[in-house]
Specification:
The protein is of the alpha/beta class. It is built from 12 helices and 10 strands. It has helices at 18-29, 44-51, 77-81, 103-122, 164-183, 206-216, 232-244, 263-273, 286-293, 297-302, 315-321, 328-341; strands at residues 10-13, 34-38, 64-68, 86-89, 127-131, 186-192, 194-196, 226-231, 252-255, 260-262. The chain has a 7-stranded parallel beta sheet with strand order 3-2-1-4-5-6-9, sandwiched between helices. It has a 3-stranded mixed beta sheet with strand order 7-8-10. Bound molecules: NADPH dihydro-nicotinamide-adenine-dinucleotide phosphate.
Length: 345
Amino acid sequence: MNQATMNGPIFVTGATGYIAKYIVLKLLNRGYHVRGSARSLGRAQEIRDAVAPHLTDPSALDRLDIVALDLSKDDGWHAAMEGCAALLHTASPFPITQPKNPEETIRPAVDGTLRALNAAKAAGIKRVVLTSSTVAVSYGSEATTQRKATEEDWTDTEAPNLTPYAKSKTLAERAAWDFAETNGLDLTAINPSFVIGPPLDANYGTSIEVIERILAAKDPMVPQIGFATVDVEDIAEIHIRALETDATIGLRVIGACERFMWFQDMAHAIKVAFPERRSVTRLAPAMIVRLLALFDPAIRGVLPDLGRKREADGSRARELLGIEYRDTKESVVDAARFLIDRGLA
Ligand code: NDP
């Protein structure tokens, strides 16, 4: 399926998101019509302003419209997708601080995914690309600390210490596969690792908040937390190429370059690129991190993965979709530059 064979707009949920804005931009630059959703129409102009400077043809904005939808409410979903050719479901809560009540993250993720898929089915949309995560692939198990995780791996939702976010993404992806099988949808799941790179505007999500935190240098040391990583433009490209490649139907596609990065590696890259900034690169002993976690909920959320190296195999995206991954060391530096240049950090 490609632009020529797509009959109608591509529906993108969560168009206000860090990754989704790049997806919308790339779809418009390829000539697609796009219908995006935001929780409030008040943010429609923000999306337009974010993509406008990067459009190859300014009139492409005429091919973008925004509708209001909430993952937790039924209102509007069915009407919104009428006439659309395909669904890219990216919206999902992605909190930097895990909520006290896990259901606050899990319910919108799972119920919202089912709302989106039900609406797609009712509108006659068959082709769906879902933004899942590597937290739905390799968490809650020790096996994936010994080898690179692949699309065959699934996070164990019963594992103790699994964060509400990881549980939400795993349950949402499982629900999507069940729904697709029962209802005959052509589903591809994209499983991004930690996404990094400059955002399109100052309304960025959790991954840029991590860079902001490193730049703020308010922590005296960095915890030994790390992730497989992928550049934000690469992950947007993976979504769109997957949509256009029927061979990905029924598959999960991990987005991960070769570079695994500890927070310390990110801090080092930033220190080298911006030597005039006060940077903290000293590694915090595990005991201190556990102590800090008592007071800092953001640290508490990553505690189960302290010192654990979970690499992910991103070769399927390379082989099936021709993705040539950008080195995410550059993405980290560019994200930091974005924040510094705008006085945001
Ligand atoms: P953002 O927080 O920027 O994007 C999340 C999007 O979901 C926003 O548009 C947000 O809307 C929307 N959303 C959240 N809750 C609701 C709700 N109740 N109703 C409607 N919309 C809602 O983060 P990212 O762009 O990074 O994340 C996009 C997707 O990618 C998510 O599914 C995330 O799980 C996944 N992902 C991200 C990774 C990363 O490292 N960034 C890694 C792996 C997966 P609003 O703007 O109104 O809050």
